[in-house]
Write a structure and sequence with these properties.
mainly alpha, 43% helix, 5 helices
């Protein structure tokens, strides 16, 4: 496995080698930044989420279950953000008004820098959980090198 430098970011909470979103060519770990399946997207022509889920043999139902479970465990449900959960929020480095407001409510005693570090740390945890839930042999072989990065 070769990580493409232009497809990686250094971000607080994840530190080095965070993948860019799937729609920008990110690796399997970037499923953590994908939104909820079943909704039309502005950039649907670039979205690779469903193709990657199929490639890994992870059903849409299981993907949603993982994200919803993580959201519940981390108190990330929010009516402010798209799809009702911070677990579906993206990477947007410039900020997302809905995501950032939801995070400021969830972590009221933290600065933006602090809650963004927490956000990306948790997105990294969610990424690992998604990849650990790949059950079939073919998919497990594909994600193994990425799991070694955690």
């Amino acid at each position: 496995m070769i990580l493409e430098e232009d497809k990686l970011r250094d971000i607080p909470g994840w530190r080095t080698n965070a993948p860019v979103p799937i729609c920008m060519g990110g690796d399997y770990r970037s499923l953590t930044f994908c939104c909820k399946p079943g909704y039309s997207l502005t950039f649907s022509f670039k979205c690779r989420r469903d193709n990657v889920l199929n490639e890994l043999d992870l059903s849409v139902k299981e993907f949603i279950k993982i994200k919803q479970g993580f959201s519940k465990e981390n108190d990330w449900n929010s009516e402010i953000v798209c799809f009702g959960s911070i677990s579906y929020c993206c990477m947007r480095r410039g900020g997302c008004p809905r995501r950032d407001v939801a995070l400021s409510i969830r972590y009221p005693n933290k600065s933006k820098e602090e809650f963004m570090r927490i956000y990306f740390q948790k997105k990294k945890e969610l990424s690992k959980r998604i990849l650990e839930n790949i059950k079939n042999y073919k998919g497990k072989e594909k994600v193994k090198p990425y799991l070694d990065l955690f």
